[in-house]
Amino acid sequence: MSDYNAEDVRNIALVGHAGAGKTTLVEALLAATGVIPAPGSINKGTTVCDYDPMEKEQLHSLDAAITSFTAHGKHVNLIDTPGYPDFLGRAISVLPAVETAAMVINAQSGIEPMTLRMMKAADNRNLCRLIIVNQIDSPEANLAELTEQIRETFGPECLPINLPADGAQRVVDCFFDPTGGDTDFSSVEESHARIIDQVVEVDENLMEVYLEQGQDLKPEQLHDPFEAALREAHLIPICYCSATTGVGIPELIEIISRLMPNPAEGNPPPFLKGEGADMAPVMVSPDPTKHAIAHVFKIINDPFRGKLGIFRIHQGRVTAQTQLYVGDARKPFKVNHLFRLHGTELIEVPEGVPGDILAVSRVDDIHFDAVLHDSHDEDHFHLSSMECPVPLFGLAIHPTKRGDEQKLTDALHKLESEDPCFHVEHNAAANETVMRGLGELHLRVLLRRLSEQYHVDVETHPPSIPYRETITAKADGHHRHKKQTGGAGQFGEVYLRVEPMERGGGFEFIDATVGGVIPNNFIPSIEKGVRQVLDEGAIAGYPMHDIRVTVYDGKYHPVDSKDIAFATAGRKAFIDAVEKARPVLLEPIVKIRITAQGSAMGDLAGDLSSRRGRINGSDSKSRGRIVIEGEVPLAELDGYDARLKALTGGEGTYSIELSHYDTVPGNIQKQLADAYQRADD
Ligand SMILES: Nc1nc2c(ncn2[C@@H]2O[C@H](COP(=O)(O)OP(=O)(O)O)[C@@H](O)[C@H]2O)c(=O)[nH]1
Ligand SMILES: [Mg+2]
What we know:
The chain is an alpha+beta fold and 681 residues long. It folds into five domains: 6-259, 3-Layer(aba) Sandwich (Rossmann fold), CATH 3.40.50.300; 288-299 and 306-383, Beta Barrel (Elongation Factor Tu (Ef-tu), domain 3), CATH 2.40.30.10; 393-464, Alpha-Beta Plaits (2-Layer Sandwich); 469-581, Ribosomal Protein S5, domain 2, CATH 3.30.230; 586-667, Alpha-Beta Plaits, CATH 3.30.70. Helix content is 26%, strand content 31%. The chain is built from 16 helices and 35 strands. The strands form nine sheets. Strands 2-3-1-4-5-9-6 form a seven-stranded mixed β-sheet, sandwiched between helices. Helix 6 crosses helix 8 and helix 12 crosses helix 13. The radius of gyration is 29 Å and the shape is globular. The N and C termini lie far apart (68 Å). The protein binds guanosine-5'-diphosphate and magnesium ion (MG). Guanosine-5'-diphosphate is lined by residues 18-24, 42, 60-61, 83, 104, 134-135, 137-138, 242-244.
C-alpha cells in the first residue's frame, strides 16, 4: 500500500532560466523537510539533482531530475529542469507529468529567455503556474521593480502571495493570515485584497458572499475557487525566497502543499484516442479504482541499470504485479520492480497511486511519450504532443574508428530516445549522418556522452543545410511504361498535373481519373512512384514540398499492368512534369535572438547583413544589455558562435528557431544544382 492517496500528491516542475537557483532550491526544500540532512551545493557538486559528472563539471543542470518530499501531510514530487535554452526539450518534456509549473526567476537578472519560453510552454499545456522569485538575498536585486516587470510581461493576474520584509530577511504571508506587518514594498493588506478579488471572480456565489461580508472569507472557503483561478490562469501567485539563506522556504513549502493543485484539481491531461479523423479527446481521472493509465515522459539510458522509463500515473494504480502494455503492443510486461526517484537513487516502492511519478527499469519496448496501460482496448491512446522547437543546429558525424558504425547508430538511437529536441537524420543527398540539436552546447554535451558513456569517438564537420525543393508553376507530365521481357510484359501509362501549394502545404495526391482508365488498385502504385521522387528531389537531391499532384488520365493493359509498371510510369510522369514546373530550391530561414552589450549593436548588425540577414528590432534590457531579433538564412550561420564571441568579447549569446522556408538566390541554386548529379535511370 502507498502511504498517501492521489489527493495528497502535488507535482511541481521547477522551470526557468539557468542560474535562477532551481537546483539549489530543491536542496533547500529537501533539507527543510528532512529528506536530506543539509543542503548540498552546486559548486561542490553535492546536490541531489545535478548528480551527473558532466553537470558537476559544468556547474549546471543538463537534464531533468526528480525527487520528492513530504510536508503538511502532502507528498510533493519535484522535477528540477535544465535552464539553458539548448536543453529546452528536456525541460518542456516533463510538463505532461505535473499540474504545476513553478517558474523560478533570479531576482538579480530578472526575466530571461527561458523564463519567457517556459511560461508560454506551461500556458500552452494549461498548467497552473507559480512564480518563485529566488535569490532575494542578492544586494543588487530590485524586487519592487522586478515584480512590476513580471506583471507587465505576464499579466495582472500575477499577484504576490507573500512579500519580502526587513530587507529580504523574512517574507510575510499575504494570503492565509495577512497580519505580518510592514514589508519592503507594497502592502500586505492590499496584496491580500487583490488576491481575494482575483479568486472570487471565478465563483459567482462566493462573489456575492464576499460583497456582503467584505473580506471575511476563510482560506477553506477560498480553496476551491483558488484552484479554479490557478487552473484558468486567472491567478499566477508570486512568492519570494532565497535558496541559500532559507528565507521564504517554509512559506514556499506551505504554498506548494496547501495551495497548489492535486491531480484532481489541475486541468485534465489532454489524452486522445484514435487516429487521423477519428481522433477524439478522452477523459482520464485520477481514480485509483479505474484501470491504469500512465505516460512515459522521460527515458534514461543508464550504463549500469539499463533503460529506465519514468512515468506519471494518470489513472488507476500500478503495483509490482501489474501487467502493463506499452501503447498498442499486444504483449504486456510485468512491472516486477517499481521505483521512486531521488536524484540518481532508485527507491523501490510497492505501489503507485494516480499522480505518482515512478520508474520501471529494463523494459526494452518502453519509449519516450509512450502510454502504459493495463487494458487491452486502449489502442491508439496517446497524450497530445508537446510543441518542441525544431532542432536546427546540425553536425555531420562519422566514427573515427572504422567498424564503429553500428555502435554509433545504436548510441545515437539511445540519445534520441532521451531528448525530444535531438534528432538524427541521414542526408541521402550528401550521404552523411547529421545530428541536430538546439545549440552548440547541446551537441557538445551529446558528443561527450557518445564518447564517455558509449565509447564511440566521432569526427564532425558542418552539415549540409536541409534545403527543400518545390515548384513554382503548373505543368503536365506523361509517361508510358512498356516493357516486354520474355512472356510477361509490363505496361502502365499515366498523365498527371503538378501545381504549387502554399508554403507549408506539404504534399497532396489526387486521383481524378474517370471511367476506370486506370483501375483503382494501381493508383497507390502511382503515388508510390511519385513519392520516390519527392524524397530525392528534382534539382539538387533535396525533398520536395508544397506540391499537389493530380492524376487525370492513363491506360492499362489487362495482363501486363502491374504495380511496378504503374510505379515506374508515375515516377517518370512526375519527373517530366516537375522539370517543366520551374522547380526552385528553398532554404530554411531562422529567427535569431542575440543578447549582448549594447555597444556591440553596430558590429552585430553589420555582420548579420553580410550573412544575408536582417534585424527586425531590438530591445534594451537592464545593465546596458540589448536583445536583438532578426532573420537570417540558416546556411549563413556557419561558425556564428565563434564570430559572436569575437564581436562581443565572449559574452554574447544567441538562440535560433525556424521561421520559414524561402527561395534561395539564383546563383546559390545553381551552385547546389551543379554540385549534385542525379543518378537517373
Ligand atoms: N545568493 C544566492 N545565490 C543563489 C541562490 N540560489 C542559488 N544560488 C546560486 O546560483 C547559482 C546557480 O544555482 P543553480 O541552483 O545551479 O541554478 P539553476 O540553474 O536554476 O538550477 C549557484 O551558484 C547557486 O549557489 C540564492 O537564493 N541566493
Ligand atoms: Mg539546475
